[in-house]
Amino acid sequence: MTGLSVALALGATCVFSALAADPKPDAVVKTKSIDARIFLDDRIKADAALAADCLTEGRKWLDKNAAEAAAARKEDPQFFKDGGWDFERKYAIRSVVSDRYVSALRNDYMDTHGAHPNSDVNTILWDKSESKRISIRPFFTETADNGATMKAMVKAVIASLRTEKKKRDTSETATDEWFKSVEPSLLKIGAVTLAPSTEAGKSSGLTFHYPPYAVGPYAEGEYVAFVPWETLKTYLTAEGMRIFGGARPKGDAEEPQ
Asked: How far apart are CA 34 and CA 243, in angstroms?
């Protein structure tokens, strides 16, 4: 075999290996109007109840967007001459605390042939012992809208966002106008996860995840605000005191959340 033949053969092998390594979607809808996929990471798949919950939600999302794409194509077929919409949703575990509380990220990608694709991020807090989704409410003595806990949380979130914007040299958008959507309410403060910790089985605090446009222009992308557990120590329940501890791992702030 010549050197060129060997190179071509090796190249073909590398391409095949790369293709073989591509993950297979866990749910798919593919029509003339849309190509949409759901992916679950391996850690989610290892928990049958959590995997089933995510897939049920994901399939509803696929069906909803497939119906909207079909309607849009029927109304304006010229916008589909280069292909259908492209949608993707990925579920991935961010942390597991006390071998009970699982924080997962839900990242969406959506291309409807507009000026640019869009993305969204949301979170799931899963109680393994109850096999159900929960909120962070059990970890705090009170979480009333405009209550002391939520006000302290918002103050800490905005301080973290200002710090992050300074790092990115985007301080000009660190304004009350951009932060007005971060409200002292569990439903309006932002999508939250339990941050990992340097102490095994613990959480170092809360991370809040904001998609493009939420707290800054599209070009700035996503933001993650971190609130150390010590900042909210006054408001923790006994269960909150049990699960929080340690510090945020050094690499956590630099890694994609």
From this structure: 43
- Calpha distance 106→148 (Å, rounded): 29
pTM, two decimal places: 0.88
Residue 128: Cβ within 10 Å count: 15
Segment 53-107, tens digit of pLDDT: 999 999 999 999 999 999 999 999 999 998 999 999 999 999 999 999 999 999 9
Phi, psi of 28 (to 5 degrees): -140, 145
By DSSP bridging, strand 205-210 and strand 101-111 are unpaired
Q: Give residue 131's Cα distance to chain centre.
A: 20
89 by DSSP, 3-state: which? strand
CB 192 within 8 A of CB 206: yes
Place of tokens 């958008």: 173
176 close to 240: Cβ distance less than 8 angstroms:
no
- pLDDT tens digits for 127-161? 999 999 999 999 999 999 999 999 999 999 999 99
| Distance in angstroms between the alpha carbons of the first and the last residue of the chain | 47
Contact 157, 181 (CB under 8 A): no
